[in-house]
Amino acid sequence: MAKKIKDGIYWVGAIDWDRVLFDELVTLPEGTSYNAYVVLGSEKTALIDTVEPHKKGELFRNLEELEIKKIDYIVSNHAEQDHSGTIPDVLEKFPEAKVVTNKKCRDMLIDLLDLPEDAFQLIEEGEELPLGDKTLKFFLAPWVHWPETMFTWVKEDRVLFTCDFLGSHIATSELFDTTDENRAKVYLETKRYYAEIMMPFRNFIKKHLKLIDELKPEIIAPSHGVVIKDVEFMTGAYKRWVSDEVKPMVIIPFVSMHESTRHMVDFLTSELSENGIIVRPYNLIKSDIGNVAMDLVDAAAVVIASPTVLAGAHPSIIYFSYLMNGLRPKTKFISVIGSYGWNGKVMVKHVQETLKNVKAEWIEPVLIKGLPKESDYQKLREFAKELSDKIKEISN
Ligand SMILES: Cc1cc2nc3c(=O)[nH]c(=O)nc-3n(C[C@H](O)[C@H](O)[C@H](O)COP(=O)(O)O)c2cc1C
């Protein structure tokens, strides 16, 4: 069902209620949506992005419901197929339409969708495209996810289409973020989206949050999840996430085969809490990596806890470390603890090599042979004290 955002601006996307995994990587506890929009000017009609190809039927039904007979422009804000994948079908149905995007996005769409070069109309940063009584304006937003991403602004209505930026994976029949049912979910799922997708680009995002402050949109319409009316609340949350500030919190992602490392984790957890630090131990065998990523957004420290396995760290620890290395959180301190049978140093080296892009201060690891004994607990107590003091120092 098409949904009205403002006069002449409609949501025409699709809701994927039971999708559980995105990019074969990211879990979707709330499903997701692919938000396409139409902007009906007095002279021209623009479609803003499309939907995942398996949902194209819903997009076409929504266009029919609005009795759209002609599409002049298909604006592509981002080349990824969950937004662009139905462009070839739209072009087939509306052959007179031009795909409007920047040069980089055009080149990517040609590669990803095998579109012909003459299907495109290129725009530059700040260029305007008149639709009659409405005008589109384009802002390039390179690396606000991919290198070709851009935003589309409807000047007269103060609506900003930001594609993945400020989006959230939520399937809901409610269009806006303003219902009580949506509010709680929106904050959480927008943070999850930031953690899993946007965190590596936090320095680029800072610049584009400033652009949003300048534009002062009434409505932000991203390409996943709900349409945002409470712009200040959501950009305020994003500003905190991309800032250099951290919470006095330690995440302990851990694996333990025979409980030795787990005893270390339990002891460290209680020591750190006694020192007034928030602690989140995550058993990686049972945890949703998205929840861990959400805490990576603002935790001051990460202590990775692993037994030595096959002359390295446990594979689940390496999976996590690899993701953390790619997500590049603002974590200030990092360390490793764990139990070994005959050589624990190889485990530490394995983790450190995997985390080479994380720019945090390394705290001396604590390695224990077999089960922790009283002298080992003393080492962990000292480790907890050192870490807590460092965190408190930067929190004041
Ligand atoms: C499959 C397997 C492989 C292991 N490989 C190593 C190894 O390469 N080097 C080592 O020092 N210990 C190795 N160990 C011994 C464990 O590191 C040791 O038992 C440790 O205390 C286990 O910690 P946990 O109780 O937290 O699982 C291995 C143990 C298992 C079960």
From TrEMBL:
One matching Pfam family: ODP
SUPFAM superfamilies membership: Flavoproteins, Metallo-hydrolase/oxidoreductase
One MF term in the entry's GO annotations: oxidoreductase activity
InterPro entries in alphabetical order: Flavodoxin/NO_synth (IPR008254), Flavoprotein-like_sf (IPR029039), Metallo-B-lactamas (IPR001279), ODP_dom (IPR045761), RibonucZ/Hydroxyglut_hydro (IPR036866), Rubredoxin-O_OxRdtase (IPR016440)
Top-level taxonomic group: Bacteria
Stored Gene3D superfamilies: 3.40.50.360, Ribonuclease Z/Hydroxyacylglutathione hydrolase-like (3.60.15.10)
Annotated ranges, domain Flavodoxin-like: 250-388
Family classification: In the N-terminal section; belongs to the zinc metallo-hydrolase group 3 family.
Name this protein carries in UniProt: Flavorubredoxin
